[in-house]
Structures are given as structure tokens and as C-alpha cells.
Amino acid sequence: MKHLSTLSLFACLSVPAAAQTAGLVFTQSNSPMGNELIALQRDAMGGLTMQGKTATGGTGTGMGLGSQGSVAFVTDRRKVLVVNAASNSLSAFRLDASGPTLMDVEPTQGIMPTSVTERDGRVYVLNAGGMGSIVGYNLSQAGILTPLPGAPAPLSSSMAAAAQVGITPDGKQLICSERATETIGVYPIAADGSLGQAQFLRSAGMTPFGFEFARGNNLIVSEAFGGAPDASAVSSYKLSSMGLPMLVSASVPTTETAACWIANTGNGRYSYTTNTGSGTVSGYRVMTATAQLEALNADGITGNLGAGTNPLDASISIDSRYLYVLSPATAEIAAFRIEENGSLSKLPSYMGVPATAFGLAAR
User: How far apart are the first and last CA of the chain?
Assistant: First the structure.
């Protein structure tokens, strides 16, 4: 039986230019002494080397944020967004040949921002602390954030323990996973960017956490099941014409502990989740036409980082050749080559990320 350490349980479940940017991986230090965007260069073999660190203009919490999407690329891949969870702000960076340049820092009108998403210049941030809320911005070509009209949108409850926000591929709805209420919120996005009244749908399984949209209007969601040993799962949904997630495969087991973060290949055929409590990665085959899921391995172990690694965020390179997994407990970003059949081959890890690091975005 795989056991979930106190540290990994908190991290996972706590309440809380294409050519220029291809080959880059970003995380944030999340340091309470001053947050930094950490940039790493990816070589032709998938290896990572340090490129540099840039201050975000805010501060982190120094502990797990219990979210997916605290560091995110924007649609044009020439900008990166980073939440500053302790200083309640959002930072926008422009990317060029010299590296990231901080362009703007804006308050998030709430407490403890933990997840950010963007599509075609619209940005939404999840404030997971306090009463909980979602706030929106317009992002200019220059990287300047301007608040969208309307008040921050509420979550279903002040006890929602929301984990992630994401804009649907058509840009018409915003999805939010809520761990404590075990719901998936769907917010209509008006023409001016304001959020309408949400519908809260029951999750297929307990503790819905990370999610990612896949080709074919598919939505893949991890379910941590409260960190119960060997009980976590992944569910798939097909987005309806109205943008509502329609359940297809319900809680397909990982047989591992605390599945939290999701990453999909660009062709939508494979999806991976990190199992924080087991130190493993579980892979799934996705039928793009139907959104049906099939586990790649009967024992749920497609990739093995090892005991005590407590893997957190996961992200896949833009060419879908490499999967990267953040493990601050062991100061590493683990790397895997994604084979044609979806299996994973372990590559050397990058060693040297701070123990407070959180969030991962690869291109």
C-alpha cells in the first residue's frame, strides 16, 4: 500500500514567440521572501538547464498551493502569467530572446490567488482564500493587465477549496474545480468578459483537482479522493454545445494515492496524472472522438519517480515529446520521454529547484 505523507497531502489537498519560447520550462519559487519566475532551457534530448530567475514583484507562501495552473503560458506563448499567493497579486511577463521581462503586477481583488488561465487576451484568476472568488482581466499585446467589468464571481461556497480555473476551447465558458464541494463550476463568459451565474455540476469522483482540455472538446479531470491510499482516479467529460461537461468515463482508477495534476499530449490521445502520495505518474489512452479513458498500465504506474518524491505539477512540451514533473520535496524537475504508444521513458532530472517551488509550464 502506498502512503501519503503529511507534506504531500498538504501540497495536494490544502485549502488554500513560438520559436523563442519553445524549449522553455517555467516554475515559480513561491518564496515568502520574494517570489521569482524560474526559467529553464530544454535541449534537444529533453534535458533542462537553468536559464535564469526573475522577480515577480510579489511574494509566495512558501508552501503548497493546492492548485493547478499557478504558472501559465498565454495563447501566443510569448507571455507567462504567475500568481503571487501571499501578496494577492498577478504578474505578467513578456518573453523574448533575452528571457522573461516583468511587464505588470496587479492585485487580484481577493485572497490567495492560486490558479490563472488565459485565452485570446482574456485572463481569469482564482482566489482560493477567504470567501473565494474569480476575477478577470484583459491582457494587452504589451503584457498589461486591465480589470474586466463586473464584480468578482463567487465560488459555490466559502468552503469550496477550489483548485483550478480554465477557459473552454471555444472561449465561452470558464470551468472551476472545487475539491471540498466535489463540484465542477461552469461560468458563462459574456461578450465583455464578465462572468455570469455559474452552474455547479457534481463531480464523478471525490476531490476533483486538476484538469486540462484535450482535442475533441474533451475534459480530463483528476480526482484525489481525499488522499485515501490507492483510491485516486481520473474522469473524462465531453463538452456539450453549451459548454457543459457531460460525463463519459467515471473515476477510472489509478490504483495510486492522491492524483492531483493533469497533462495531455497535443494530439489529445494521452493524458497523465501525478500521484503525489505514491511518487508515480499514471497514464491513460483517450479516445478523442468519444472522450473514453483507458488506463495504460494495470497497476497504474506509467512513470515512477520513487518514494518520497511527492510529485506535484506536470506539464508537457509543445511538441508532446517530453513530460516534466515538479518534485520540490527532492529539489527536482523529473523528465520523461513520451513514446509513440504513450509509455514513459525516464530521463535525467533537473536538480536544484527550491523546496518552496510550485507550478509548472512547459513549451
Answer: 35
Average pLDDT of the chain is: 94
d(CA 91, CA 82): 5
> Per-residue DSSP letters for 23-36?
TEEEEE---TT--E
User: SS3 of 10, please?
Assistant: helix
Query: Which residues face 79 on adjacent strands?
Result: 94
Greatest alpha-carbon pair distance for the chain in Å reads 51
Q: Which among 253, 230, 177 has a CA at the least distance from the CA of 208? A: 177
pTM of the model: 0.94
C-alpha cell at 91: 504578474
How would you label 326-360 residue by residue, b for 16+ Cβ within 10 Å and e otherwise?
Answer: bbbbbebbbbbebeeebebeebebbeebbebbbbb
What is the C-alpha to C-alpha distance for residues 265 and 93, in angstroms, rounded to an integer? 25
| Per-residue pLDDT, 276 | 98
**Distances from the Cα of 334 to the Cα of 47, 48, 245, 297, angstroms:** 10, 10, 32, 20
User: Does the pLDDT value for residue 98 go beyond 90?
Assistant: no
What the chain holds in terms of domains, given with CATH numbers, is 6-362 (2.130.10.10)
Q: What is the DSSP string of 42-76?
A: E-TTS-EEEEEEEE-SS---SS----S-SEEE-TT
* 267 within 8 A of 215, measured Cβ to Cβ: yes
